[in-house]
Amino acid sequence: MKKLLMIPAAMLLSTAAAAPKISAQSIIVNPTQPDLSVSVRVDKDQSGNASPNYRVNEPIRISTSVNRDAYVYLFNIDSSGDVTQILPNRISGDEALVKANTTRVFPAAGDNFTFSVDGPIGLNKVLALASLSPLNLDQISSFKTQQDQFATVAAKGQDRLAQALSIVVNPLPQNSWVSDTAFFNVVGQTPIQTGSLFVGTNVSGSTVILNGQNLGTGNTTFSNLRPGSYPVRVQAPGFRDYTTTVAIRAGSTTNLNVEFAQVIAPAPTPVNQFTIAIRSNVAGALVFVDGRQVGTIQNGGLNVSVARGGREVVLIAPGYRTFINTYNVQQNGQITINPTR
């Protein structure tokens, strides 16, 4: 179901001004550091570090800005994985160009419509992809009917969208595109009072699991948590899991600091899991297995753990043809991929 609905401006009681935000997370990552930058934000996020709540049917405004003249494309991924292309669209025109050091707001001041948030309930992600040259998105998004105001993206979920967009930007110079991501939560008509949890660790790459749900990596503040007492498990490669119970309180942040010390031996590889060494002469090439990005080629290769059976392997590198092939994995092995230009 589409998350953003158009309603007449006459039905609005008020509108909010857009606030600057630069997200610390990305859906598609440029392996270089281009001098082009883009930011995307939602109007309730004043700090740039939050995932603000929007009630169903509540208006929302999305803003984007660049430091150089660039073509900017906006996508929204809802909590079920459905992807909608927000800009360009048929309401405000197909022009994607944004001038340097200016901010484009959707809906803009004076527009005779507004955006309103729809379901499903959960976390939404807004991706801004900026390019110095226009992008051809015909292969990943389309208007299903002549009446549709927004294009529907064929890729479903963050990983599939990242793979599709990686193929789109593959022919471009690496320093000519960049991305940014903003977040917001869709909640019910009556928002629940929530609290936050900060988990700090002394090991990079740790994982935080609250009440059986994977929240993300350590050294992060997790917001919009229901008050209550929950079991927490913090995991880090090579260390014994840390478990405890935390109390989440409405309107406050609970702090949990974990210091890993005891190293454990690595667990044996499951019977139906195999290690495939993917070798390539293209350093920095992106590697996808079954639509999920598993890493980049470094020092001539990348080791990947995969399940038994047919596995689609995709390798993407700027200046090279995209490599796609399916392999029947029955044991540990090696795949050598040297893509052509």
CATH topology of the largest domain: Immunoglobulin-like
Helix content: under 10%
Classify the secondary structure makeup into a structural class: mainly beta
| Proportion of residues in β-strands | 35-45%
Task: Give the secondary structure arrangement, pairings included.
Elements: E1 4-8, E2 38-42, E3 53-55, E4 62-66, E5 70-77, E6 83-87, E7 97-98, E8 103-106, E9 113-117, E10 122-131, E11 141-142, E12 151-153, H1 158-169, E13 177-187, E14 195-201, E15 207-210, E16 213-217, E17 220-225, E18 228-235, E19 242-248, E20 253-258, E21 273-279, E22 286-289, E23 292-296, E24 301-307, E25 309-316, E26 323-329, E27 333-336
Parallel strand pairs: 3-13, 14-20, 21-27
Antiparallel strand pairs: 1-9, 2-4, 4-8, 5-6, 5-7, 5-10, 6-12, 10-13, 11-12, 14-17, 15-16, 15-18, 18-19, 21-24, 22-23, 22-25, 25-26
